[in-house]
Amino acid sequence: MTLLHAVIIVTVGLIAGMVNTIVGSGSLLTFPTLLALGYQPVLANVSNTVGLISGSVSGAVGYRRELKGQLRRILSLMPVVVVGTVIGAILLLAVPGSVFRHVVPILILLAVVLVLVQPTVARRRAEAGRKREHPGPLLQVGTFLTSIYGGYFGAAQGVVLLGLFGITLDDDMQRLNAAKNVVAATINAVGAVFFIANTTIAWKVSGLLFVGSTVGGQIGAHVGRRLSPQVLRATIAIVGTGVAIKLLVSG
Asked: Which tens digits make up the pLDDT trace of 200-233?
């Protein structure tokens, strides 16, 4: 690995850490970069997952104030997150390729729509005297399916998770983003453990991404926590739509 390659990997890792914390699509920066530097797709994917763990954790720590009172909510999702991620990781190693390339852009666009209509849905539930604070069947199933995708590849999984959280839970957007960061960090961690135990990792790549994404996660939390709900929704919509278009074009 040359010095230039190392600098590039650290830099995209930092940017990805920021993007993942605020919205969630950092792998669309790091994964293509690793491919461009000559790494094989599966090796790049698993090394990327391992390297971005710290960014996800760093972002979750940065949102720790918004996580207060959400322990029960998050813990109730952990079983489906773990099982779904393992299934996705197994699929990656057993069936390499772009299996989800036709479905994922549609899911992301749907998630963007859910994020945008969330205030209207929440207002109508409030007017009807209903308030949802804990995950129901819809969120459990949606999180399970998103975790499968996250274990397989995971680009823009944060956009999908935020869409699901926003439409099924009545809470402030920043608090939902904090919960999203914890769930995304868990998906990355479970996937990383599975890959470390079952396949080859490019450790230099993962180490450089680890350093960059850790710093990026803190910067992302600093910026993201100061965005108004309206700006955060707009950011999610713009990034999510851009990601979907990119995947459709590249697919």
From this structure: 999 999 999 999 999 999 999 998 888 787 777 7
What pTM value is reported for the model?
0.82
d(CA 217, CA 57): 8
Q: ∠ CA 3-8-10 to the nearest 5 degrees?
A: 95
Chain mean pLDDT for the chain: 85
What is the Cα–Cα distance from 157 to 16, expressed in whole angstroms?
13
- At 237 the pLDDT is 76
Q: Which residue has the tokens 């790494």?
A: 39
User: Quick one: pLDDT at residue 23?
Assistant: 77
Copy the structure tokens of residue 71: 């322990």
pLDDT tens figures, 38-67:
888 889 889 999 999 888 889 889 999 999
Q: Are 229 and 115 in contact (CB under 8 A)?
A: no
Closest of 88, 95, 2 to residue 41, by C-alpha: 95
Secondary structure class of 217 (helix, strand, coil): helix
Angle at CA of residue 162, ends 160 and 165, nearest 5°: 110
Residue 136 token pair: 């129901």
Assign residue 199 a region (left: φ > 0; alpha: ψ between -120 and 50; beta: otherwise).
beta
Q: How far is CA 119 from CA 45, 63, 116, 166, 173, in A?
A: 35, 22, 7, 8, 10
Alpha helices, DSSP H only, in the chain? 3-22, 27-36, 41-51, 53-62, 71-94, 104-127, 137-152, 157-168, 173-198, 203-224, 229-250
Give the residue from 74, 245, 240, 247 showing the smallest Cα distance to 165: 74
Please give the structure tokens belonging to residue 197: 């135990």
Residue 223: name the closest of 12, 8, 20, 11 by CA: 20
Q: What is the pLDDT of residue 194?
A: 95
